[in-house]
Structure formats: structure tokens, C-alpha cells
Amino acid sequence: MHKSRSAARSTLSLLRAPPSTVSRSPVASTSTITSSARTLLTSASSSSLNARISATSSSRSASIAAVRRGFATVTDHPASPIEEESAEAEEEVERAEDDVDVCIVGGGPAGLCAAIRLKQLEAEQGREIRVVVLEKGGEVGSHILSGAVIEPRALNELFPDFMNMDNPPPMGQPATSDSMRFLTSTSSFPLPHPPQMSNTGNYILSLSRLTAWLGERAEELGVEVYAGFAGASLVIAEDGKSVKGVRTGDVGLDRQGKRKESFEPGMQFNAKCTLIAEGAHGSLSQIVQKHFNLRKDCDPQTYGLGIKEVWKVDAEKHQPGKVTHTLGWPLDIKTYGGSWCYHMEGGLVSLGLVVGLDYQNPYLSPYKEFQRMKHHPLFADLLEGGECIAYGARVLNEGGLQSIPKLHFPGGALLGCSAGFLNVPKIKGTHNAMKSGMMAAETAFNALHPDKEVEITKNSLDQPLEGSAQEAVDMSPYETAFKESWVYKELNEVRNLRPSFHNPLGLWGGMAYSGVDSLFLKGRTPWTLRNSWEDHAATKKASECQPIDYPQPDGKLSFDILTSVSLTGTNHAEDQPVHLRLPKDEGARARHTETNVNEFAGLLGRACPAAVYEYQDAEGGAADAAGKKFVINSQNCIHCKTCSIKTPTQDITWCVPEGGGGPKYSRFEEKSLYRLFRMLINRLVSSSTRI
Ligand SMILES: Cc1cc2nc3c(=O)[nH]c(=O)nc-3n(C[C@H](O)[C@H](O)[C@H](O)COP(=O)(O)OP(=O)(O)OC[C@H]3O[C@@H](n4cnc5c(N)ncnc54)[C@H](O)[C@@H]3O)c2cc1C
Ligand code: SF4
């Protein structure tokens, strides 16, 4: 175990680039330091991953083999022009393969708790189990937005009495007070705070740091954690009836999908059980749900976009442990959402705004709503004299219980926010994600060692499966365990709150219903309100809506979007295939531009919280349609997934870029001098570009 851990660590250390070698402007057209360092690094680490796997698997029958041996893959970019070329090239590719017991895609709270629980069972039951975790972030935790309030219930089940561990988790600051307020543009009023929303016993912490801590514990127990390696496609049995593992993305392809000198084919992990823990709207999660029709008996999933900043505030204004949530301004009554403000340890404050992605007005900019929100006296008084040190954005599931798909498929299962376990009114999903990972791990362990049943629930498989699926690991007891767990109970209780905002009175109707339900009914109603449509379908045509006049940022409380993006540390090797893909046919770009510009006023230019999309004025052949050229600054992407959810034409597919690319949310713990230096450089670069 030690050997495996240190080998994995040396792979990790290769992946960690010194910031100076990979830093770049978030603006596509002005990228400064580009791919060479990163490519060398990624290529080196990919080779060393292969070498490590060969070394550790000599006793485990791993092999370097041609891939085509009875498997098909389902890629995350079925419409990509690259696929054809790669498929052609693939015949010649020697791809490293490795056989593992469990392959987990996603090193977030759900995936890591699953990995840890599997290894705990290995130790308890004396049965060896090989567990691999693939994480697309350059480091474990780097794609996890910091500054959250966490319920410790699941953590306590995984590590009882965790505060007395030799190396306790970084639990930050205990929550000390709670309030809910309603905002008008100039004032705020207290609202009743339902008891089940209480934060007593919860912790305000950096979720990125907690996730990194879970990653360390997983490695200590013998889990092989590979950060910087994205799961790019699923390995499907030839008859299509079961999942047989995961393939990581190729590295060293240029923008056109051609191999560069640094080309390294992705690795194939053949797994008895594949657990998908990618968080909300994951790319493989979407594919597996479609392939196995997992959503046929549930409502559509709906989402909110959470935009978050972390501020260092004046010591006098800082009230450690204070938790505030708001409803109302700056959003109108037809737009669901609300803000949070958490006083963390160390003089830091996490604040942010969630905007339901079923918003109707295509002129709305979630980023600008958040920027203007900070000028409200409730926030301005707190932030004045402080410094914004981190920015990030990510979608969260809002569909609740009625939007959770079937959780298992032959050969694996969906975990955490990949399935959609977030408690929307609480804006909390970490505890549920962790618990789901633990339940999935117990099911997987039982399925792999049927003579060593771990008590979670009775096996509920009554239906025999056909074909190769019969041989696939059966994860159906995980679904039963979920329905018998406290996660289900909690989600059932709040299931009607979010959908109650779909009513003719908007905010007023939703607040009235949720007040009564959460204070008195507590979900004990015979009815369940439905989520009837996907978010993009709620968007109205621009001709039916009014443009919104947002104030200019003042550079003190509010910022332009590129300044904010520079705080995410996002980075993608420049010369790689664009990971935001339109359909491959020639007319796709023109069709997209025509409809999105003419009918929806170029919605993506406002919806994306990282200024990735632009519809630039253009003439003649330079225009795609409607006098505009559609530009995708993919390097800026912070992996929030909004575009593929909200685009009215539903023609943007988010695919994993080369592993290691994307935001670095753990960066806010870097020394502030270095941070200021980076900001200055980014400002200088971005001032010479168009916005
Ligand atoms: C703005 C915002 C505020 C929130 N506030 C709170 C809060 O205060 N309290 C709370 O409890 N919860 C909060 N949540 C919810 C919480 O973040 C999630 O419920 C929780 O992180 C879910 O854990 P997960 O492991 O399922 O997914 P994630 O935490 O999203 O982790 C998924 C991991 O998988 C990786 N990944 C994705 N795709 C791939 C791939 N193909 N290959 C390899 N790796 C991949 C990602 O990089 C990521 O590291 C908030 C969420 C948001 C967006
Ligand atoms: S391109 Fe899409 S996924 Fe990336 S930051 Fe913009 S909206 Fe989010």
C-alpha cells in the first residue's frame, strides 16, 4: 500500500506546475504563456501514470494492449469533428489498459467518500479491493468552490469522532448565528427562519480544503487518486448493455484534433464497477443517463447558477460564524434565487448569489446581478475597505427528489450531485453527496464480494438482466439504501419548496407556499409539485422582454468580468481541441448564431460567468449569421456547465478538456502578494483586449 501511495504521490507532484510556468490571461486572444510547459508536463505525467500503472499492476494482470478487444466507447462529444479523425487514428493507437475493481470518476466529496468507505471495508473484511479515482482538476479540490456551510453528519459516520483524529479535517469555523432576510433595493427585512434550516452544529469552511483532506485520507488508505486525469469516455460492453470502465482523455492533440509530438493516448481502466461522481451536470453522467434511459421515470433536472466571491474584510466588521441568507432584490419576482453571506475563519467572508437557470429574460446576466447586489447597504457596509480574493461559479441541481434519475445501471451507479441530491432551500449538498458515496461503496463491496455481505440493505434485484448485463455488477441495492436513508427523508421533506416558485405570482406565491410548508406541513402532503420543463425551455424571446440596464462596476465593490475570471486561476493549454462543441455539420455555427442573436439577443454572452462567448460584429464572409461572428474563448472556461444547460438552441456540448485544465479554486490560500501580482499582470493584459 505504501508503495502504491508514494508512486501516486510522485505522479501528483509531476502534475503540479509552478504557477509561473502555466499562468495565462483568461482572454483567449491574448493568452500569454501557453501550452509548451503545460504540454510537456502533462505528457510527462501521462507517461509516468502509465509507468506507475505498469509497475503496480505487474501482479494484477494489467497490460499495454491495442484497445479494440470487445469494447465500444461512448464519448462525451458524439458530434465532434475530432471524433472521426480520432476514430481513424485509434486503430493504430497502443493504449495502456489496466484492470481495477472500482473506478470512480470525480474526486469530489461523493467520489472520495466512496473510495474511503471501500478501503475501510477492505480493512474490516480482509478482502483486497483496488480503487482508482480520476479527477479532472490539477489537484484534488481545485475544481471545488470554497466557502460553504457543511452539515457534518455524513463525515461523522465515515470518521466517527473526527475532531479527535490524529489529522483532523479542516472544519474551519463553527456556525454561530442564522438569519434570513428579504431585500428591497435599499433595505432589508427579517423573514421567519424554519427550524430545519438551522445551522447549529454546522461548520463554515473551505470545501476545496476539506476535499483535499479527503483525498489525502483516501491515498493513505491505498486508493490510487489521479488528479489531472479526466474521464473522457465510458467503456461500454459490445452489446451496449453494461459499463465496463472509463477511458481518460488523450493529451497532445492540437486545435484541429491532430496529434502533436507530445501526443499521449488516454488510458483505459477496465472496471468491475464504475462510480460516476462528477458533480452537477457531469459529462459522463449525461451520457450514461441517456444510454440507459435512467431519466424515464423522473422529472427533468433543473439548475441554478451559483456565483461566489471570497472577501477579506475589516477585522472590526468580521463576525466569525455568522450565516445570512436573502431573497428578493436584485432579482425580480419572476426569477428564482437568493444570496448567502458566511463569515468564515481568518477574517474571510464567502458571499454569493444563486440564480435559477429557468429565468425568462435573455437580457439577464447572473454575473452582473451579483455585482450590483454587492452595492446593497447590507453587503456594501461589510465589504467596504475589504479585498476580493477569490471568484468562482458552478451550477447546482435544483430539481430535488422528483428529478433524481434511476441511480444505477449495469456495471455502476451515479453518486452525489451527478445524481442530484442537493437540498435546494438549504443550498447544501455536501453531506448528501458524501452519504451517497458511502452507500454506493457498501453496495459495490457487497457486489464484488458476495460472500462478505456488509449490512446496508437487502438485495432488491428480482429482475434478471439480459445478455452481458447479467455479468455486470448489480448496484440496485444502492437505490434501496438511498430510499431508506436520511438523505431521502431530508429531500422528501423539502421536495415541494423549489417547484412552488413556478406559479403565476412568482416570488410571492413561492414564499407563501414554502413558508407554510417548511414551518408547518414539513412535506407531509399527499401531493408532489412537478418540475415540468428544462431550464432552457423557460427562456422567452428577446422581443417579449426588456433589456436590463446594469450599472458599471466601480472597481471597489464590483468588477468587470475579466478581472473576476483572473481570480479563478483558470488555465487551459491553448492548442487543444475546443471543449465547448457545436454539432459537427458545416451549418451548425450559422444556425446557432442566427437563432441565438435574432431571437435571444445573444443570451450566452450574458449567461456565461467567465466571458467565454461573444457574438462580435462582423461583415460579409467573416460573419456567421445576422452580422455576427460567434467566438468561443474556451480558455476562460471555469467548468460551471451553464452554457450546455441554458443555451436556447441546446447545441453546445461541454466535453472534458485536457486533464488539469480549468479553475484553481484552492488558490485563495496563496500568499496575497503573489495574488496581487497576478491580478496586476492580468489587468494589464486584459486592458489591451476587447471585452
Ligand atoms: C455556489 C455553490 C454553493 C454551494 N454551497 C454549499 C454549502 O454551503 N454547503 C453544502 O453542503 N453544499 C454546497 N454546495 C453544494 C456542494 O458543492 C455539492 O453538493 C457537493 O460539492 C457535491 O459533491 P460531489 O462530489 O457530488 O460533486 P463535486 O463537488 O462537484 O465534485 C465533482 C468532482 O468531479 C470532478 N469531475 C467532474 N467531471 C469529471 C470527469 N469527467 N473526470 C474526472 N473528474 C471529473 C470535478 O472536477 C470535481 O472535483 C454549493 C454548490 C454551489 C455550486
Ligand atoms: S463556457 Fe460554459 S461551462 Fe465554461 S464557464 Fe462559460 S458557461 Fe460555464
**Backbone structural class:** alpha+beta
Number of helices: 20
CATH architecture field of the domain at 2-146 and 211-297 and 406-483: 3-Layer(bba) Sandwich
Mean pLDDT: 84
State the total count of DSSP E strands.
26
CATH classification, class level of the domain at 2-146 and 211-297 and 406-483:
Alpha Beta
Overall 3D shape: globular
Low-confidence stretches: 1-71, 75-89, 457-468, 671-676, 682-691
Report Rg: 24 Å
| Major sheet summary line | 10 strands, mixed
The third-level CATH topology of the domain at 2-146 and 211-297 and 406-483 is FAD/NAD(P)-binding domain
Helix content: 25-40%
Strand coverage percent: 15-25%
Identify the CATH homologous superfamily of the domain at 2-146 and 211-297 and 406-483.
Answer: FAD/NAD(P)-binding domain
Task: Explain this structure.
One of its GO terms (molecular function) is metal ion binding. The chain is α+β, with helices and mostly antiparallel strands. Among the domains are: 2-146 and 211-297 and 406-483, FAD/NAD(P)-binding domain; 542-665, Alpha-Beta Plaits (2-Layer Sandwich), CATH 3.30.70.20. Helix 1 packs antiparallel against helix 3 (35-56) and helix 12 (430-448) packs across helix 13. It is globular and about 65 Å long. Mean pLDDT is 84; it is low at 1-71, 75-89, 457-468, 671-676 and 682-691. The structure holds flavin-adenine dinucleotide (FAD) and iron/sulfur cluster (SF4). Flavin-adenine dinucleotide binds at residues 105-111, 134-137, 143-145, 148-150, 207, 230-231, 277-279, 282-284, 306, 308, 352, 394, 396, 416-418, 422, 427-431, 433, 656.
